[in-house]
Design a protein that fits this description.
By secondary structure, the chain is α/β, with parallel strands linked by helices. It has helices at residues 2-13, 27-43, 47-61, 165-188, and strands at residues 64-65, 70-71, 76-77, 84-85, 90-91, 96-97, 102-104, 116-117, 122-123, 128-130, 134-135, 140-141, 146-147, 156-158, 163-164. It has one domain: UDP N-Acetylglucosamine Acyltransferase, domain 1. The strands form 3 sheets. It has a 6-stranded mixed beta sheet. Strands 1-4-7-10-13 form a 5-stranded parallel beta sheet. It has a 4-stranded parallel beta sheet with strand order 2-5-8-11, with no helix packed on it. Helix 2 runs antiparallel to helix 3 (47-61).
Length: 189
């Protein structure tokens, strides 16, 4: 069921795929399949074997997923090269990750030290998301963004450090409204 869902997600998100069988050529599909196996071993406390499987997958796919990471259904890693997903990372369902994304920690802290990514989020190419932060449901992270704090659901963040574009647009519209009222008052005086 999980592999079928990933293939459906690939078909939905990549217009280049024409037949389901082509999905088997995607390194993101293989990375998730290997991760499921490595994660099972990790949960059974077979840490060496889990790391062995994850490192073999990394060499084969160019995608590094720590066996301890928790990944929901329908994850699609498009292109995949250079993706890194840390040990305490939690990824929801139907998440889209482009190449070069890092979901990492900020140091040698213990406990939860990697991001939590909500369902339906899109992480743009080269985005770096660090620390125990939350990326909200259906949030979009722009390419090359550096994210160091929580991202609200249904929002878009860009830049280094990342900033919320919807919030900026709201502030710009409020400033424009204030300017218009000020001009009207000046004309009245």
């Amino acid at each position: 069921m999980t592999t079928k869902r990933i293939i459906q997600t690939i078909r939905k998100n990549d217009p280049a795929i024409r037949r389901n069988i082509e999905a088997w050529l995607y390194p993101g599909l293989w990375a998730v399949i290997f991760h499921r196996w490595a994660n099972w071993l990790y949960r059974k406390r077979c840490f060496f074997l889990a790391r062995f499987v994850s490192q073999r997958a990394r060499r084969r796919t160019g995608i590094e997923i720590h066996p301890g990471a928790s990944i929901g259904h329908g994850l699609f890693i498009d292109h995949g090269a250079g993706v890194v997903i840390g040990e305490t990372c939690v990824i929801g369902d139907d998440v889209l990750i482009y190449h070069g994304v890092t979901l990492g920690g900020t140091g040698k802290d213990e406990g939860k030290r990697h991001p939590t990514v909500g369902d339906g989020a899109v992480l743009g190419a080269g985005a770096t998301i660090l620390g125990n932060i939350k990326i909200g449901t259906c949030a979009k992270i722009g390419a090359g963004a550096l994210v160091l704090s929580d991202v609200p659901e249904n929002s878009t963040v860009v830049g280094e450090p990342a900033r919320n574009t919807r919030l900026e647009a709201s502030i710009r519209s409020e400033i424009a409204a204030i300017k218009a009222r000020l001009e009207a008052l000046e004309k009245a005086v």
